[in-house]
Amino acid sequence: xxxxxxxxxxxxxxxxxxxxxxxxxxxxxxxxxxxxxxxxxxxxxxxxxxxxxxxxxxxxxxxxxxxxxxxxxxxxxxxxxxxxxxxxxxxxxxxxxxxxxxxxxxxxxxxxxxxxxxxxxxxxxxxxxxxxxxxxxxxxxxxxxxxxxxxxxx
Length: 154
Known about the structure:
By secondary structure, this protein is an alpha/beta fold.
């Protein structure tokens, strides 16, 4: 099983990210990922995430979104975690605005292991105490540490 800390880095775990809109938040995600993973083009990441949202919102409720997509040129799963400075409208299933985005990019030939990652992220964010801890983190390191801690609790 792939562990989340192997695909997420402190550099891709950001707090107080300006949101504004769903599109702007996804653009920010794409910029952060392409800066840390140079083989992934910012525009590719952005367009693929937006295209995936058009199929149906990845807003899961409770202020959470898990934007995800398959991506050409992506050789291994890549993740990013953003806590927005203020919640944005995300067309989530419960209608609530979103302030936590946990992004997952997987290779085009995605496997069961990649689906398992999505399940891991969703079940972690399903726990209110985890969401509270993520929202309370005041730095990138603290945000990343919450994910590490939660992984190690199991």
